[in-house]
Amino acid sequence: MKPKFHWYYIILAIPLYLLALLPMRVIYFISDGLRFVVYYIFGYRKKVIFENLRNSFPDKDEKWIKKTAWDFYRNLFDVTLETLCMATLNKSYYSSHIKFHNLHLVQTLNARNQPFILVCGHMANWEWAGQSLHLKSAQVDVLYHQLTNPWFEWYVNFIRTRFGVYTIPMQNILREMLKRKDIPTAVSFVADQTPGPDGCHWMTFLNQDTPVFVGVEKLAKKFNYPVLYGEMVRVKRGFYEIDFIPITNEPQLMEENVITETHMHLLEKIILRNPESWLWSHRRWKHKRRNNNEN
Predict the structure, then answer these.
(1) Which residue, among 77, 66, 85, 83, has the nearest Cα to 32 in the 3D structure?
(2) The dihedral sign for the CA sequence 279, 283, 286, 287
(3) Residue 168: enclosing H or E segment and its boundaries?
(4) What local confidence, expressed as pLDDT, does residue 285 receive?
(5) Between the CA of residue 247 and those of 118, 143, 240, 266, what are the distances in Å?
(6) Over the stretch 75-109, which tens digit does the pLDDT of each residue have?
(7) Residue 3 covered by a domain
(8) Does a structural domain hold residue 185?
(9) Beta strands, E only, 170-256
(10) Domains: count for the chain
(11) Does 288 reside within a domain?
């Protein structure tokens, strides 16, 4: 699915494209500069980040909270600039910077021409994860929320789809999945965003009462697609590893909310090991459970 294109979008994209041509060592130097300026001068979402960290890690002291927040800003700008660099990165760059574990799980499903659902969180560089898997082993279909700015919507879609990744706006999920059900795709969900307080599942996540989207589970059961969890960690700057963890091959036999809680618990475990790599600037806990919400 490609957003509508206007000719002047190319002109607007030139500065970002030129940025993406810079050597990665320069990109990371810029990232360090942005981290310093934003943390100490602008304080982008600093209150939200500190509040999220304090509530998620009530046993940690303020020194740990500050260090983790500082490390988070490095991750934030590294991921932002690495994502913009997708406009110029070649295929070999991904293969040399991302290592896979348990890739046979994906390859087995592909050999059976079996579409599956791949669920992950906003950990490390989730954008590179989709690109690298697509180039390595599977057709990746990425589900996403459309952006309000039409130019940025076009540009982000451009960098995501350069090598054939297929993008699906959230409002078109059912139609697109039905249309592509005979293609052995990895339907990719980044499933840790914030739903409204109703029509979701509530669970304890990072020591807090948390609303969770149930779309992964509902679609897995509707189409009877196997579900894998993609766990991504940063080994060092610009280098990542991705591990595939099976959740179920028979989603229709799973009890209600088990798939949802399983992928959220897997995300929680990797956050506890690598807290600086999660997207703490998101207002994840802005909703409170209503009294009539029993889930």
Answers:
(1) 77
(2) negative
(3) strand 166-169
(4) 94
(5) 10, 19, 22, 10
(6) 999 999 999 999 999 999 999 999 999 999 999 99
(7) no
(8) yes
(9) 185-190, 201-205, 208-212, 227-236, 239-248
(10) 2
(11) no
